[in-house]
Each structure stands twice: as C-alpha cells, then as structure tokens.
User: What shape does this take?
Amino acid sequence: VDIIWAPQREKYIKSVAMSRGKCFLCEVVKQKNDKKNFVLKRGRSVFCILNRYPYNAGHLMVAPFSHLSDLDKLPEATFKELFQLTKEMTRLLSGVLKPDGFNIGINLGKVAGAGVPGHLHIHIVPRWNGDTNFMPVVAKTKIVGHSLSKLYNTLSKEIG
Ligand SMILES: [Zn+2]
Assistant: This one.
C-alpha cells in the first residue's frame, strides 16, 4: 500500500511552495534563517530541511542549493553529497525516532507528483508498522508549528 506519494497532497504543497511565483527551496537557501525555516543542515552544495507538510513525523527533504530539475544536470560532487547527506539524515532519524523503515524517493516532474517541479529534492519519510492507517491524521496534526519546532530542536541537537 503506497499512499505516501498521494498527488493531491503535493498539489497543496505546491500551491504553498509556489505562492508569489517563487521557489520556496531557493528562498530558504537565500534567507539564511535556518531556524525559522527548519533547515537542519547546510553542506557544501546541498542542504536538509524539515518538511512543513509532512506525510509522517520526521519527514525531511534533501536538496541542492542550485535550482536544478534533472539528475543529469547535477554536478558529480553535488550528486554525491546529495546522497551522502540523505544517508546521514536517515541515520539521524533512525536514532532519534526509531522508525521501522523509510520511504526515500525523488518525484521528478509534475506528472510524478513533484511538489516543487523545478527544484530537485529527495524525500526521507520515516515509516512505522501500521502507520498507513492513521497517516492522514498524523499528516494533518503534524502541521502544528510547535511540534515541528520541537522535532527541529531535537534533531539539531543530535547534529551538534
Ligand atoms: Zn529552487
């Protein structure tokens, strides 16, 4: 049962992300207000951010700083760092949230349900046994800013 990439959710995310015609990932990179934007880590060419509209608790996104849509266009070093940070963040979530598994994936292009079609990003979604049953509820309640801040602080502390 793979309801996790439900396109109707992405539509909502997109409407938020693309409001005023701006790419929210580029905005976050530019703003350098990482605490407010829930940016967990900046690397040399990639960064990791908490998803404000998570499918599940601990839903992270890893993206390059550059506004690139294709894997083909990523410089080799960025490609490498993208997956290194994905690995690192998955390990972090494993330790903190103790999930039973993960969905890690990239939606390339609108047809695949990419919420921000122009800016490549990898989703890291922790999964717990049986969570598909209450995921829509979880997704709604987790939008509450307070719990996101709490999770952000916990994960930030672990990163050090
Ligand atoms: Zn962008």
